[in-house]
Amino acid sequence: MRNVGRLAGFLTLLTLALGAAGCSSVTYNNDFDPTIDFSSLRTYAFLEAADPTQADRGLDDFTEKRVMSAVEDELGNMGYEKARSGAPDFLVNFYLTTQEQLDVTTYSTGWGYYGWYGGTQTSVRQWTEGTLVIDFIDVSEKDLAWRGWAKGELQPNLSADERTRRVNELVKGILGQYPPKS
After folding, report:
1. What is the dihedral of CA 159, 28, 56, 64, to 10 degrees?
2. How far apart are CA 18 and CA 31, in angstroms?
3. pLDDT for residue 10 is more than 50
4. DSSP alpha helices (H): ranges in the chain?
5. Which of 64, 132, 158, 168 could form a disulfide with 59 if both were Cys (CB 3.0 to 4.6 A apart)?
6. Are 179 and 38 in contact (CB under 8 A)?
7. Is 180 helix (H, G, I), strand (E, B) or coil?
8. Distance from C-alpha of 67 to C-alpha of 148, rounded to nearest angstrom
């Protein structure tokens, strides 16, 4: 009898652990203007805010620097060059949005031979979902050309090295969708 109770408890914990792990996955997506010739875009620069004191990308200064560095590395690996002088072919902008999420799950904790003894339990999980967005703006058209984003659970308790690795992974995943496939 005690073993059945322990088994039910273990299965409940396993289900919750797998459910929580499933919630922390990252999804990637993108959208683009199909009229733009992306092969003509070779040089880039980061979009500068007209008033830097009012610019808010939703990121702390350290994370903003990590994102800029990761974007530069990935675009460099893809053969794009950061414009040193003159007008770039496209501008890069990025920002983070957040939204509080709530997950309520009710599950059976019962056991028994000809019926269920026990009842149900409800678990409530609250977390912050973040969306990191990277935009490419076509300078010649002065319009958004491409947007890629990653959406997942924010992990605020990471070390500095873990944050850098995480940002690099996210940026690589987002820019891995560029150039778009029509």
Report:
1. 40
2. 31
3. no
4. 2-23, 61-77, 160-175
5. 64
6. yes
7. coil
8. 14
Tokens of 136: 């490419």
- Residue 104's nearest CA partner among 75, 79, 126, 120 is 126
Contact call for residues 55 and 92 (beta carbons, < 8 A): no
Residue 146's Cβ-count burial label (10 Å; 0-12, 13-18, 19+) is buried
| Three-state DSSP class for residue 30 | strand
**Strand 120-138 relative to strand 90-108: parallel, antiparallel, unpaired?**
antiparallel
Structure tokens given for 71: 């974007």
Largest CA distance in the chain: 79
Place of tokens 């560095």: 69
Q: Which residue has the tokens 């090295």?
A: 161
- pLDDT at site 55: 61
Query: Which residue's entry shows tokens 């060059």?
Result: 81
The amino acid present at 65, given as its one-letter code, is K
Tell me the two tokens of residue 87. Answer: 């007008």
Lowest mean pLDDT among 27-36, 70-79, 90-99, 112-121: 112-121
Q: Are 92 and 74 in contact (CB under 8 A)?
A: no
